[in-house]
């Protein structure tokens, strides 16, 4: 990750936090994140649906917490002081038999044995390698803004989400100042405004909890289209896609960053077992190793999005009724199963 694109809180699962041991920044991550002590889902009007502390299985595997994205980027940057950093953005690429060349927007070029595109959901490297890939669009947008910890509608370390019809609000607490991060969709299923295009947030909604409903007028909103991408391929002979560039994630299961970290570790491992001539083979093994696990996690995020992003009051009532009757911790089931599998 580069330093651009700061601005929201990342829930990290042990899938991802475990990886940080290998680059020596795990303990700093734990220090700078807030351990998730409880997850609570409420209806749009605040009725309790489900609440649970972390299952012991999670703690056995590693740290589960929330960290400002910028802090994670900073920690990863500090982990390798010997890496040369450049500010330019990739605008085009070329693969040849022995390596790849990236053209940056400042007019310079970078050449190496391999180009790794870890440039997010809108990846220029992916477009350069494969051409445009179809977006999976939920039709919803997510607005994020920061509030004072005093207004956080739950206890310290508790993530709380309000599952309404036509709205979804999550409040994600962060350490020290406990500045929570709330996210919500805009009301309606019309094609959402894109970031920078302006947005209309209603000043009051009938189906919202009173304390966590609307951003204060002074709030700085950031808009995120709720779309993802699944690349047809992850690799060329000398180009690899990683993280959201390969398989992008909706934030609904909070898994995208953890999957990106896991994939980075797998790619590093494969590359540590080859020389420059064998890079194409290492990349094939990397894709075979990672792709099905990552796409399964993406499916889980999409399924959750289908359940959460509904404007139908009937569907929302049914969904909430089911969740309220299900055993606590059920929502975490697929993630726990993944943790038990080798990566
Ligand atoms: C509002 C929101 C909340 C989310 N919440 C969570 C969560 O709680 N937990 C979770 O796991 N996931 C969450 N996600 C998803 C998560 O952010 C991504 O899955 C994750 O960040 C992917 O990491 P990445 O490194 O692949 O891409 P990114 O984090 O997107 O990083 C890509 C980087 O590449 C840079 N870049 C872009 N284009 C270029 C270019 N042409 N050249 C060079 N650099 C470029 C960008 O500036 C950026 O720094 C959330 C997403 C959103 C939008």
Overview of the molecule:
With 343 residues, the protein is an alpha+beta fold. It has 2 domains: 9-72 and 135-228 and 312-340, D-Amino Acid Oxidase, Chain A, domain 2, CATH 3.30.9; 86-133 and 230-300, FAD/NAD(P)-binding domain (3-Layer(bba) Sandwich). It contains 9 helices and 15 strands. It has helices spanning 14-17, 26-32, 56-61, 69-79, 124-130, 256-271, 279-308, 313-325, 333-340, and strands spanning 9-12, 34-35, 38-43, 48-52, 65-68, 90-96, 99-104, 109-112, 115-117, 135-146, 158-163, 168-172, 181-185, 222-229, 239-241. A 7-stranded mixed β-sheet has the order 4-3-11-12-13-10-14. Strands 1-5-2 form a 3-stranded antiparallel β-sheet. A 3-stranded antiparallel β-sheet has the order 6-7-8, with helices on one face. α6 runs antiparallel to α7. The two termini are 21 Å apart. Bound molecules: flavin-adenine dinucleotide. Flavin-adenine dinucleotide is lined by residues 1-2, 4-5, 8, 10-11, 89-90, 118-120, 124, 142, 144, 183, 224, 243-245, 249, 251, 254-258, 260. The site of flavin-adenine dinucleotide (FAD) has 28 residues, from β1, β10 and α6.
Quick recap:
With 343 residues, the chain is of the alpha+beta class. Helices cover 30% and strands 23% of the residues. The strands form four sheets. It has a seven-stranded mixed sheet with strand order 4-3-11-12-13-10-14. The protein has a three-stranded antiparallel sheet with strand order 1-5-2. It has a three-stranded antiparallel sheet with strand order 6-7-8, covered by helices on one side.
